[in-house]
């Protein structure tokens, strides 16, 4: 960075002070959106990540050997194609842990509406959003925040979010913010069927005859996250989301047309998941990696913000409830001729550990290792 840009490293004078910046962004709930709107010209130091953690687009490798074409889920309904789609889904879960799906039952209109709703919420005045900060929010199931775990992070992430955990319709109608309530509910409800069929298929692929009540256990809790990555003055020096794997059974993710989601291919490098109009991204989370004794991959991924446009994404995190035991399914290790690598533990224990630390790649799985 040249001396000339340094002189206006941060436009609004008072924010140059580090503790003031933290108060402004995190505690007062202005978020990175508030920072971006304050007209800053370059990235505050607190957002600069070590070089090894940054995303260099020039280092990104060609996705085609690892990421197949989007999988057509309508074929799961057709007896003659069912086997083939099952193989595609399970194969993708084993190989990369990320795939895209089309004909998934969520209409384009629903997808468009939820993306617009995310913009509407984040464009609210900061004091309105701040009403949903932890400690102020009227429901523990509706949380607005920024970065992943600001109190535990050396470097902050360039992302604000609103998380809504689905309990029941009445609770959602009462507490979810009006700006996004209906669109998020509609999105979740229309995705439910495909979530169940993708998860059932993946579990069946492990060779177990899983009945639907067993599948229900692993999809008991659903949380819709609305992620907002404001325009960033120096996206190459920071991250929108740092390297992590999800704690879920599966995550279903809607991204907009901006791009910036990268997935690690073990021993090879990073690929980008290209935006595909109308498609949804599905990724395997730690829970399914554990259940499958490592056969399915909970891939490490991360996000870069854009220097020209606000980016949004809307993952649905599908997880067991806190009192469900997770551990390799019986007989699987023997069948795969592999040692058992994960122990049995309560999902709640896994979850508390996951949210108690900053994003550190696949370290989140250590607590479950034997
Ligand atoms: O924004 C994205 O594309 C991915 C976000 C993500 O990985 C997450 O919220 O866990
Ligand atoms: Fe993620």
Explain this structure to me?
By secondary structure, the chain is α+β, with helices and mostly antiparallel strands. Helices cover 32% and strands 18% of the residues. The chain has 12 helices and 14 strands. It has helices spanning 3-6, 18-27, 31-37, 79-95, 108-122, 126-130, 169-175, 178-204, 212-218, 286-291, 332-336, 347-355, and strands spanning 71-72, 98-102, 142-146, 160-165, 221-229, 241-244, 250-255, 261-265, 269-272, 280-284, 301-303, 311-319, 325-326, 345-346. The strands form 3 sheets. An 8-stranded mixed β-sheet has the order 1-2-10-7-12-5-4-3. Strand 1, helix 4 and strand 2 (98-102) form a beta-alpha-beta unit. Helix 5 crosses helix 8 (178-204) and helix 7 runs antiparallel to helix 8 (178-204). The longest helix has 27 residues, at 178-204. The chain is globular and about 60 Å long. 2-oxoglutaric acid is lined by residues 225, 227, 241, 246, 253, 255, 261, 301, 303, 313, 315.
């Amino acid at each position: 960075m040249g001396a000339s840009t340094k002189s206006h490293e941060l436009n609004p004078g008072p924010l140059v002070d580090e503790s003031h910046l933290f108060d402004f962004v995190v505690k007062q709930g202005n978020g990175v959106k508030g920072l971006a709107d304050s007209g800053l010209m370059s990235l505050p130091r607190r957002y600069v990540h070590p070089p090894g953690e940054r995303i260099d687009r020039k280092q990104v490798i060609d996705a085609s050997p690892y990421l197949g074409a989007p999988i057509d889920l309508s074929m799961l309904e057709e007896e003659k194609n069912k086997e083939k789609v099952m193989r595609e889904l399970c194969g993708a879960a084993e190989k990369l842990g990320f795939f895209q799906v089309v004909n998934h039952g969520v209409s384009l209109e629903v997808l468009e509406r939820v993306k617009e709703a995310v913009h509407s919420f984040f464009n609210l005045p900061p004091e309105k959003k701040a009403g949903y900060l932890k400690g102020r929010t009227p429901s523990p199931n509706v949380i607005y925040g920024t970065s992943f775990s600001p109190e535990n992070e050396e470097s902050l992430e360039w992302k604000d979010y609103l998380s809504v955990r689905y309990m029941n319709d009445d609770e959602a109608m009462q507490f979810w913010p009006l700006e996004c309530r209906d669109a998020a509910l509609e999105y979740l409800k229309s995705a439910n069927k495909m979530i169940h069929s993708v998860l059932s298929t993946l579990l069946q692929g492990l060779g177990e005859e899983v009945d639907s009540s067993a599948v229900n256990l692993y999809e008991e809790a659903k949380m819709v996250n609305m992620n907002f990555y404001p325009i960033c003055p120096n996206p190459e020096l920071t991250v929108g989301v740092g390297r992590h794997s999800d704690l879920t059974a599966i995550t279903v993710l809607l991204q907009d047309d901006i791009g910036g989601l990268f997935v690690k291919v073990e021993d090879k490098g990073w690929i980008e998941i290209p935006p595909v109009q109308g498609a949804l991204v599905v990724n395997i989370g730690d829970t399914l990696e554990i259940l499958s004794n490592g056969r399915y991959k909970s891939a490490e991924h991360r996000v870069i913000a854009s220097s020209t446009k606000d980016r949004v994404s809307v993952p649905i995190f599908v997880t067991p409830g806190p009192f469900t035991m997770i551990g390799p399914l019986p007989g699987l290790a023997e069948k795969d001729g592999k040692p058992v690598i994960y122990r049995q533990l309560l999902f709640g224990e896994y979850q508390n550990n996951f949210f108690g630390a900053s994003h550190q790649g696949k370290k989140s799985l250590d607590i479950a290792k034997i």
